[in-house]
């Protein structure tokens, strides 16, 4: 399967990997910024999100990204992953470290960290709403949980639309298991920055700390204004962090 995606610009490659609350549209505030700044930027929709259909057979999100890079002949790229996209990015960087120039994990999830009570409570409430057929309630729960106080009404509406679409696509599809290969964070060689939001769930903030401690040389920065999705909550404050992290990849 080919993931729905966009690619534009010239220069060092940057891949934007979206949260499971969103799809590739979450990167609208960064798309033109990065292409204008001299990067070749790609943003895919994972399977079951945005314009990519739900999977029909076993799949591997990180390998999907590898195939997309190979399709365009991109040997090395910076990976920018938000939440679930951060989980995929860390797995990719550990499995194919030579392919990654920079790794920015924005409020990332991780399979290597056990969920805390607040994350379990969220999951249980979401499951109950979806089992009851209350998609609207599940959407509202996600928006309420994952967007911090800096997010405006238009952002909340966009995230609601993206999350509702993902629920509708995934609930209509057969239950297909993903392939979960083992990986070792110690294999990551790219310069790594891990961001967390002060208004995010404690469990997610703990994941950021864990990753920063277990990826060699990684730096952890806590954004005091942010919730779980800082790139959409306040692009004016997030974008300088992003550009500064990528800046020295460009030719002088």
Keywords, please?
Rossmann fold; globular; alpha/beta; 9 helices; 252 residues; seven-stranded mixed sheet
Provide a descriptive summary of the structure in words.
There is one protein chain. With 252 residues, the protein is an alpha/beta fold. It has a single domain, classed as Rossmann fold. The chain contains nine helices and seven strands. The longest helix has 19 residues. The termini are far apart. Pfam families: Abhydrolase_6 (PF12697). Keywords: Hydrolase. InterPro entries: AB_hydrolase_1, AB_hydrolase_fold, AB_hydrolase_sf. This is Alpha/beta hydrolase.
Quick structural overview:
With 252 residues, this protein is an alpha/beta fold. It has helices spanning 28-36, 61-71, 84-95, 117-131, 135-146, 153-171, 202-214, 230-233, 235-246, and strands at residues 5-8, 13-17, 40-44, 77-82, 100-106, 191-197, 219-223.
């Amino acid at each position: 399967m080919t993931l729905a995606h966009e690619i534009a610009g010239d220069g060092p490659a940057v891949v934007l990997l979206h949260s499971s609350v969103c799809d590739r549209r979450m990167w609208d505030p960064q798309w033109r910024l990065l292409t204008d700044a001299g990067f070749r930027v790609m943003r895919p929709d994972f399977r079951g999100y945005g314009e990519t259909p739900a999977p029909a057979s076993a799949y591997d999100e990180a390998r999907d990204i590898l195939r997309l890079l190979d399709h365009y002949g991109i040997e090395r790229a910076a990976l920018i992953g938000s939440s679930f996209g951060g989980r995929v990015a860390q797995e990719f960087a550990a499995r194919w470290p030579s392919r990654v120039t920079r790794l920015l994990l924005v409020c990332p999830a991780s399979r290597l960290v056990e969920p805390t009570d607040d994350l379990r409570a969220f999951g249980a409430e979401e499951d109950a709403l979806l089992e009851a057929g209350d998609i609207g309630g599940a959407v509202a729960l996600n928006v309420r949980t994952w967007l911090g106080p800096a997010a405006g009404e238009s952002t909340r509406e966009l995230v609601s639309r993206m999350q509702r679409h993902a629920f509708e696509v995934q609930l209509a599809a057969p239950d297909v298991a993903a392939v979960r290969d083992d990986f070792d964070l110690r294999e990551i060689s790219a310069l790594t920055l891990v961001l967390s939001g002060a208004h995010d769930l404690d469990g997610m903030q703990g994941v950021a700390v864990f990753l920063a401690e277990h990826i060699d040389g990684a730096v952890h920065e806590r954004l005091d204004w942010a919730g779980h999705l800082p790139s959409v909550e306040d692009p004016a404050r997030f974008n300088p962090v992003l550009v500064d992290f990528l800046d020295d990849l460009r030719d002088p």
